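Exercise 7. Given the encoded structure of a 168-residue chain, write a plausible sequence.
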């Protein structure tokens, strides 16, 4: 699959096939893709929490207002932001950097034949507290990404809109 095909095939999957295990090699490939993302001054203001525990996935589904699909996912990856590593020119760019890492995970999952869904956490204080409490983490959860074998094939929702482009 080409990069162009992968971009156009990516969908937000909210229903997963039960009982599918994602191997450690696949998990590491997803994480490597995340860590290949660009970041301001190469500060790499992120760390990752991989959740494979069914109980913890169900707990995320219970506390995240839009994360019900976690109860069917094979695993979740939480992208945690490290804003404190950015100083000077790079300061404050962690949201863009963590978003780039997230997009790489989504595209890598698609290329691997897996489904995924990005559920935002940051900047909603209530969501941050709930995810930190559910997982016992002290970092800044940027988002939760559900990953598994897709049990649905939604139509594309993205499309090219010429009127949103200005040429100078």
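Solution.
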């Amino acid at each position: 699959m080409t990069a162009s095909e992968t971009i156009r095939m990516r969908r937000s999957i909210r229903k997963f096939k039960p009982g599918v295990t994602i191997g450690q090699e696949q998990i590491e490939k997803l994480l490597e893709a995340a860590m290949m993302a660009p970041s301001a001054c190469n500060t790499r203001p992120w760390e990752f929490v991989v959740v494979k525990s069914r109980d913890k996935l169900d707990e995320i589904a219970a506390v995240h207002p839009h994360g019900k699909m976690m109860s069917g996912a094979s695993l979740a990856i939480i992208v945690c932001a490290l804003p404190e590593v950015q100083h000077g020119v790079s300061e404050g760019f962690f949201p863009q950097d963590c978003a780039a890492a997230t997009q790489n995970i989504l595209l890598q999952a698609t290329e691997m034949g897996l489904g995924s869904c990005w559920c935002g956490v940051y900047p909603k204080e209530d969501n941050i507290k709930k995810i930190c409490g559910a997982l016992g983490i002290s970092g800044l959860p940027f988002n939760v990404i559900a990953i598994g074998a897709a049990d649905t094939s939604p139509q594309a929702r993205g499309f090219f809109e010429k009127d949103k482009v200005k040429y100078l």
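Remark. The domain at 8-153 is CATH 3.40.109.10 (NADH Oxidase). Students should compare their own answers with the one above.
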